[in-house]
Amino acid sequence: MVRLIDDLVTAPEAARLKGVAESSVRRAIQEGRLPGLRKGRQYLVRRGDLDVWRPVGHRPCRNIIGSSASRAPSGAPGALEPANDAAIQLLRSWRAGDKHEQTETWDYLRKALDEDRLSDRKLFP
Q1: Residues pairing with 5 in the sheet
Q2: Burial (CB count within 10 angstroms: exposed 0-12, middle 13-18, buried 19+), residue 11
Q3: What HEC string does the chain produce?
Q4: What Å distances lie between residue 9 and 23, 67, 69, 87, 92, CA to CA?
C-alpha cells in the first residue's frame, strides 16, 4: 500500500527544492499554476506535481544565490533551464559583436525613447 503522506512536501520544502521563495510556491498554488492544497496554515504539494512545475519568471531565493544550487547540473533542482542558456549565449554574442552596429543601435534606441516623451527632460542625457 502506498502512503500518500510520503508523496507530499510542504511549501518551504518545495521552495527549497525549486530554489525559489516560499511565497512563490504559495502564490502558484493559490493561482492554480501548481496543484496543491492548503491544510490549516500549511500548503502541501505532491512531489510529482512539483517536479513538473517550472517557476518561470521567479527570481531565485536570496538564500541560495552563490550556493551550489546555482551551479547545479542541468535537470537538478535550481539548475538553469536550457532556454536561459540560449538567452545568455545570445546576449554574450551581441556583447562580443560589431561595436559600430551596437553604437548605431543604441543611438537609434535613445532617439526613439526620447522622441515621444511627455516630459522635456531627456531620458538618457
Answers
A1: none
A2: buried
A3: CCCHHHHEEEHHHHHHHHCCCHHHHHHHHHHCCCCCEEECCEEEEEHHHHHHCCCCCCCCCCCCCCCHHHHCCCCCCCCCCHHHHHHHHHHHHHHCCCHHHHHHHHHHHHHHHHHCCCCCCCCCC
A4: 15, 22, 19, 32, 38
Check: CB of residue 34 under 8 Å from CB of residue 28: yes
End-to-end CA gap in the chain: 70
What pLDDT was estimated at residue 67? 43
pLDDT in tens, 51-85: 888 887 656 555 544 444 444 444 555 555 566 78
**Spatial separation of the C-alpha atoms in residues 90 and 100, rounded to whole Å:** 18
Cell of 92: 554574450
